[in-house]
């Protein structure tokens, strides 16, 4: 079985699993395409289902449409063709009980004049959540990300990694079922990035969260994910769906283990294929 046949068989297995469970995918892209007004084709017939509780990373060359697809999942972009589904319904499904989403962007985008606590409470204030309830949710979110002792601190007094923690806390305070993350750790040094990856993995394992995570890092994708979706260069499309079947803790020992290295090698091979298939060439299945 070659790489493309393997990718197709994995995708079919995930689809069959979803059908067997009787539960609609949290996210579903059905032949989604995106062409901008200037004629740029960003996405070409993307087919992807993401089930409840998965941690799925989108990996691919720059310009392959990873962030565009994530913005579509957030309702910030519309497809030119195809259909998107959230919990089996349209965008109006989002925001109903047990079907909420939050997004963490590449930059922390914190209000410089507000404390960490105030920044994290902002989406709850905008929704007019009662103050006592909002404060309790913010306190719990700050504790999850390790900022409970910094709740009165201003963003300028925090490191880049701590600012990103505050941004994640702001998202978690809304009690999302679906967390979308657009390369949030890409600008951080490797040590800080590894620490945040480990903490994010712990948060995901403790919460009833489905996560979609955009990254350029093979190592980050393998460490974090239950699945890695590899996308080809523009126009973006799925060329591989790789399950990261690594039970047990994801710790520093895992980062230097033989299975970790093998997964990295597999994804590296797919990325080589992704670059070769750029410029509008069709994947050979």
From TrEMBL:
One of its GO terms (molecular function) is ATP binding. Gene3D superfamilies: P-loop containing nucleotide triphosphate hydrolases (3.40.50.300). The keyword Cell membrane applies. The keyword NADP does not apply. Keywords: ATP-binding, Cell membrane, Membrane, Nucleotide-binding, Transport. It comes from the Bacteria. Residues 27-258 form the ABC transporter domain. SMART domains: AAA (SM00382). Residues 1-26 are annotated as: Disordered. It holds the Pfam family ABC_tran. SUPFAM superfamilies: P-loop containing nucleoside triphosphate hydrolases (SSF52540). PANTHER family: ALIPHATIC SULFONATES IMPORT ATP-BINDING PROTEIN SSUB 2, TAURINE IMPORT ATP-BINDING PROTEIN-RELATED. Belongs to the ABC transporter superfamily. This is NitT/TauT family transport system ATP-binding protein. It comes from Herbaspirillum frisingense. The lineage of its organism: Bacteria, Pseudomonadati, Pseudomonadota, Betaproteobacteria, Burkholderiales.
């Amino acid at each position: 079985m070659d790489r493309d046949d393997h990718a197709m068989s994995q995708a079919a297995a995930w689809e069959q699993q979803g059908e067997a469970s009787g539960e609609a995918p949290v996210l579903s892209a059905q032949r989604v395409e995106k062409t901008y007004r200037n004629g740029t084709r960003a996405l070409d017939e993307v087919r992807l289902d993401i089930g409840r509780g998965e941690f799925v990373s989108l990996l691919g060359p720059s310009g392959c449409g990873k962030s565009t697809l994530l913005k579509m999942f957030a309702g910030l972009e519309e497809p030119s063709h195809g259909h998107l589904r959230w919990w089996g319904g349209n965008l109006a499904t989002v925001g109903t009980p047990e079907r909420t989403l939050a997004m963490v962007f590449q930059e922390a985008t914190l209000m410089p004049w507000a404390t960490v606590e105030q920044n994290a409470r902002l989406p709850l204030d905008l929704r007019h959540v009662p103050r006592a309830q909002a404060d309790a949710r913010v306190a719990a979110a700050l504790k999850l990300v390790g900022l409970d002792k910094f709740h009165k601190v201003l963003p300028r007094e925090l490191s880049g990694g701590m600012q990103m923690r505050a941004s994640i806390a702001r998202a978690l305070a809304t009690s999302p079922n679906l967390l979308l993350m657009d390369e949030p750790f890409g600008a951080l040094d490797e040590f800080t990035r590894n620490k945040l990856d480990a903490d994010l993995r712990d948060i995901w394992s403790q919460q009833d969260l489905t996560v979609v995570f955009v990254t350029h890092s093979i190592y980050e994708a393998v460490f974090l994910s239950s699945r890695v979706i590899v996308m080809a260069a523009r126009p973006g499309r799925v060329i591989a769906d790789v399950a990261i079947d690594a039970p047990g803790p994801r710790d520093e020992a895992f980062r230097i283990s033989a299975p970790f290295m093998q997964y990295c090698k597999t994804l590296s091979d797919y990325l080589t294929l992704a670059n070769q298939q750029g410029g509008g060439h069709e994947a050979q299945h």
